[in-house]
Design a protein that fits this description.
With about 140 residues, this protein is an alpha/beta fold. The chain has helices at about 15-35, 85-95, 110-125, and strands at about 60-65, 70-75, 75-80, 100-105, 130-135, 140-145. It is found in: Cell membrane.
Length: about 140
């Protein structure tokens, strides 16, 4: 005899509400126990300049390099034969001034090698101060130090 003939078997189902409750409690626990660190800013004390402007500027030796590879030293056209020969010319231009500054005016179309040649000659001539001239937005060239 089968007395359970009319009853159907119920499928088991997972109740999600208690799972959500447990996850909310875990989430609240994590939020309460987490330590929040503030990002601190780097405190920098910058030095202030208190020196007076120098009375006289050091001697400037101006070397101009054109886009087609011509060199000019203090408004005088020169050929670049070798770094040694150009170094001798730089030494002559720097005579009498121990702290002469070499200012390089290189055209935008000048090759990198021509600028490197002048830098090598300056090293051979013993000129330690080298700067490049840049064109200001107004169009006038000024030395970039």
């Amino acid at each position: 005899m089968n007395f359970r003939r009319g009853l159907r078997r119920e499928e088991p189902e997972i109740n999600l509400i208690p799972l959500i409750d447990v996850l909310l409690v875990v989430l609240i626990f994590l939020m309460v126990t987490t330590t929040f660190s503030k990002f601190t800013e780097l405190q920098v004390n910058l030095p202030s300049a208190g020196a007076a402007a120098p009375d006289q500027r050091p001697r400037e030796i101006v070397v101009a390099i054109s886009g087609d590879g011509r060199y000019q030293l203090d408004d005088r056209a020169l050929r670049f034969d070798s770094p040694d020969a150009f170094a001798r010319e730089l030494k002559r231009a720097a005579e009498g001034s121990e702290e002469a500054t070499l200012v390089i005016h290189a055209d935008a179309g000048a090759t990198h090698q021509s600028v490197v040649n002048v830098l090598e000659s300056a090293r051979l001539a013993g000129l330690a101060r080298v700067t490049f001239a840049a064109q200001a937005p107004g169009g006038a060239a000024k030395a970039a130090r």
